[in-house]
Each structure stands twice: as structure tokens, then as C-alpha cells.
Amino acid sequence: MTGTLVVTNDFPPRAGGIESLVENLVRRLPGRVVVHTRRHPALAAAQRELDAELAALGVVVVRDPRTLLLPTPALAARVSATAREHGCDRAWFGAAAPLGLLAPALRRAGVRRTVATTHGHEVWWARLPGSRAALRAVAARNDVLTVLGPATGAPITAALPHALRPRVTTLSPGVDPSAFGRPQDDDGARALREEWGLAGRPVLLCVSRLVARKGQDVLLRALPAVQGAVPGTALVLVGEGPRRRQLERLADDLGLRRGPGGDVVVTGRLPHGQLAAAHAAADVFAMPCRDRLAGLETEGLGICFLEAAASGRPVVVGRSGGAPDAVRDGETGLLVDGTDPAAVAAAAASLLGDPARARALGAAGQRWVRSQWGWDERAARLAQLLEL
Fold this sequence. Notes:
Mean pLDDT: 94
Strand order of the largest sheet: 3-2-1-4-5-6-7
Radius of gyration: 21 Å
Largest sheet: 7 strands, parallel
Low-confidence stretches: none
Number of helices: 15
Strand content: 15-25%
Number of strands: 13
Helix content: 40-55%
Structural class: alpha/beta
Number of domains: 2
């Protein structure tokens, strides 16, 4: 009987785009699925709850003793033992670099076919000589190397020898349209607006980890200009991350009022079940992501943009990595220079100040996501690549 071993650092309860992709595909893969991933001691309760939920679906989650998985001989031995114990003959590396280097060890453990999935960070692996060699080794050791789309796929493919390029194919993220698309007068949306103290006000929403390249700092710098054009606009930042205190200090320095009823509401991480309500409570979604470190840090694609579109919200998206693949500029949202607060402000204000246009772009995005970006189709594609 075929079984699939998923080897990944990126798995809930930690939040993120890669984590969302891996979890959603794991839930939909056919046959036996075993996930070998790291522990999250700081999120122990959420980890236990998630692992129990997946176990009820027949998915086994093996939490490694380590809190970070690296392709060492010791980890190779542990993941090989997991493969043998559960009879796995297929393997999927949820993030190709660097764990895809473990493929030969898994073949010795009885795995017959392997797929490794790249994201945004493999773009910088492709651009630096030392890491480029490692990326080539990952491609050489696996049967298939997937890319998220054209924007990130081009530099990754170009870094490979011609003989390995036929192994590259697309496996993009998706979204569950049925989980989003609530009306703005939905009870959950109204409750969040009341909790945030923003009833009746224009709301600009960003859902993302609070890290530099996601552009929350640019949103804060843009907000006064947005408020000048569309009075009363509030910015809601959903998510956690190492930049939270720095962002809160920036808001204070800009004279923005923080907290319920203020100019800026920083919610922290919301349970996944509340994300749909958060999108429904907003008028426009914005994440002016940007490349950093001379292009070595870049956006992979941006599931958050797809979730916003599935919710019927227009998006303001920074031109970074694969983010443009998740928006049709001028049709489902607006592409901007994510380093330019004035450009971000102009785009956001143009949508907040023209509700009819915002609704039209949001509806177009919702139709596009529902027809092109379903998780079930992505899971079927991965199953095909694994030859399940």
C-alpha cells in the first residue's frame, strides 16, 4: 500500500504561507500520509490540538526532537526510520531547500519517488554560488522540483543545468473558496469591527507575519495620506512576528493612535477560523511586500492575497517575487512599488474612495480564485507528481 512521507520544517501551529500550503495539501492527499516535522514548544497546546485533529483524519504527525530540521546524518536516520515504520514509498519535501538533500537517504529506506517544492527563499539560493550548488543537488536528488509560478520559477530554473530543467514543474498554492466570502454584515465581521472599535469606518487590512519584507512599515507611513483622502480610514494589522514592537513604535512616532477605535489596530495572531471574518470586516486588503537584501529575500506568491480575493476584497500588492502571480493588475487589485509609501497610499485611497470600483475588483478576484485556485486541484496535481 502506498504511503507518503512529508518532511518539512514548515508546518502548523506556526503560521505562514508555506505552512498553509503544506497543511492544506496534507489534508487532501490520498492514501496514508505521515508528516515528519519539528516541535514548537512555545505553541505546545495548539500543537497537541492540531496533531489530534489530523490524527482523526488519518494523518500521522511525527514531531522530531529538534526544533529546527537540518539535513544532517542524524536527521536522515530519524526520517528514514519514520519512513520504514510507516511503510512510506513516496516522499514530499514541503520546502525543497535544504531538506530535499535527504532524498538519497529516504530512497535507501524504501522510498521510490520524491518531490521537492520550492518557494520564495529558494530564489536567493539560486542567486548565490554556494547555495546554488546545493539547490542543484536538491534538483538532482529528487524526481520532481516544483515552483510556485513564473516569477519565482524563472530564476530557479535558470540556475539549474539544462539536463535537470525538465524536472521542474509548477505546483502553486491555493485557497478554499468555501471558507471565505462572507458578507460585510456577517455576525463575525460585525463582532470584529465592534471589538476593533471601527464600526462604520473604512478599514484597510493586512494579514501577514510581522517581518520586514511584508511592508507593514510602509502601510503605517502611507496611512496619514490615505486618511487625508479618505477620512476615518483605519489600518488593521493581523499577525505576529519579530517586528511587532518596532511597528508599534513607528505608529507612535507617526502620531497614529493605536488600539480599538484608533488609527491602527494590531490584533496579533487570529485563529484560522476568524480570518474569514477579518476579511469580511475589511474594505481593502493591502500588503506592499518588497524584495530585500538585493533580491535575496522575496515573496514566494502570497496565499494571503488569494484569501482576500476569495473574500471579495480588492488587493494592493507589492511587486516582489511571485506576488504579481496572485493578482491581475487593474482587474482584481493593484500592483505597487512596495517601497514607496506615496504609491501605496494612492492605490489604497483610490479603492477606499471609490467603493463601486473596489466592489468590482473584489468580485472579479473572487470569480478568478474560485475558478483557478482551488486546493483540491492542487492536491490532485501533487498526487499525480508523486504517482499515487
